[in-house]
């Protein structure tokens, strides 16, 4: 009898607990939201799009959190992932859309287009019997027609200089690699340069290969260019830093309300643990770029040159939804080895989005003297005890102001109207074979090639046809920049991105400073300037 009473009492308690939990669930905000959506979908006077309704609710909820908790629909998820996954399915060309025509800059080496005979300078006029040239077709629509699953075929017709009529090709789509290194070359006999544009699935392997190739060419010191690098995969950043640090040296740690501290350490098997390193950053270097820069600066492993980085140090966890959409939810913050929080403060999304404009307006991009940090944001590096600063972003050791002296309204109009790109395509189209025979290699081109007055006059006239009236004084001010850009674009189209950056870096103040530091006898890790 006693056992029966105890059993009955336990059942009663379980029922009460279940009822309490059920009542709590019924009273929860999530149930309230679900009931509201149900009522609207079933009782509202007009029919509604439930998917759109739910998506709008998700977006609005995330806007209440932080600037980097976001929602992406299935198509956006696919587009976001492609640059980081390291490949996509397509025909394998680098191209420009000039005056509504797809102009092939270069076919990807070993790719589907090169295999069937597509050449640099070809213009793709038709895709599967649909004309894409001169019909105001959007870039997205053109890409949709050219891309497709590996193994499928696409028929194109191209116009080629010197050939009559359109030339037909059938291209079998394949996996096309997306590289995360823009350039890798020797600056001089012992200084190498590597520019990383994003941190993708293949970045670690690409970077290791580039290091190995440069070391074979005699590299002793390295300039690592992360300017404009908006980040990417954490693992890719860790792989890259591992090339420079010793075993068990902390690279970064994360911490959040429901995420206890997690540390990521170097394995100590990197191939560049001794050479001198200069890291280049600017206000658009973010996330994984800041993890790399912060780790190398905190361990006194590199000198940092440029301007304060963006300040994105929030850890997002991707949450896949059943329809292929995704929520990226912030769950923790990134901290450098010395304890600096990379994330800059945010009061509202509006204030956060205009932070860079505010930094420009208060003079931070022109003078380091305009940047002030309280003592509470001072930290010390882990080897030499140098002072570094928290408060969001990574402060460089050597500040380089934005150089806008050559940026006139006339130059900006030429650039924004596409006149410089179009002029370059015309020059390449007419002179590719002649220039390749004349210069043989980039070294000879770099030494000897000059942008002629005739080329510049053609640019000016093209600008006029695009609605850019000629302004003599502004033209003269911007002339060095215009010449460098034209020469760099020609170098890119004749060779590749390595050669492009070898030309444009001549006007990059941060790059010039890095070379100067590495050419100083005995330069190691100097005091902050």
Shape: globular
Helix count, DSSP H or I runs of 4 or more residues: 18
Structural class label: alpha+beta
Unreliable spans are 12-19, 525-529
Q: Report the β-strand fraction as a percent range.
A: 15-25%
Largest sheet: 6 strands, antiparallel
Radius of gyration: 28 Å
Roughly how many Å apart are the termini?
86 Å
> Number of DSSP strands?
21
Q: Work out the helicity level.
A: 40-55%
Could you explain the architecture of this structure?
The chain is an alpha+beta fold. The chain is 41% helix and 20% strand. It has 18 helices and 21 strands. It has helices spanning 2-26, 29-43, 50-63, 74-85, 112-116, 139-146, 203-216, 234-241, 288-298, 349-353, 355-361, 409-416, 419-439, 442-448, 453-465, 472-494, 497-504, 509-519, and strands at 70-72, 87-90, 93-98, 101-107, 123-127, 130-131, 153-159, 167-172, 174-177, 181-186, 191-196, 221-225, 250-255, 262-265, 277-281, 303-306, 314-320, 326-335, 378-380, 387-389, 398-399. The strands form five sheets. Strands 3, 4, 5, 6, 7 and 8 form a six-stranded antiparallel beta sheet that branches. A six-stranded mixed beta sheet has the order 10-11-12-15-16-21, with helices on both faces. α13 (419-439) packs across α16 (472-494). Mean pLDDT is 87; it is low at 12-19 and 525-529.
Short descriptors:
529 residues; alpha+beta
List the helices and strands and how they pair.
Layout: H1 2-26, H2 29-43, H3 50-63, E1 70-72, H4 74-85, E2 87-90, E3 93-98, E4 101-107, H5 112-116, E5 123-127, E6 130-131, H6 139-146, E7 153-159, E8 167-172, E9 174-177, E10 181-186, E11 191-196, H7 203-216, E12 221-225, H8 234-241, E13 250-255, E14 262-265, E15 277-281, H9 288-298, E16 303-306, E17 314-320, E18 326-335, H10 349-353, H11 355-361, E19 378-380, E20 387-389, E21 398-399, H12 409-416, H13 419-439, H14 442-448, H15 453-465, H16 472-494, H17 497-504, H18 509-519
Parallel strand pairs: 11-12, 12-15, 15-16, 16-21
Antiparallel strand pairs: 1-18, 2-9, 3-4, 4-5, 5-6, 5-7, 7-8, 10-11, 13-14, 13-18, 17-18, 19-20
Helix pairs in contact: 7-8, 8-9, 13-15, 13-16, 16-17
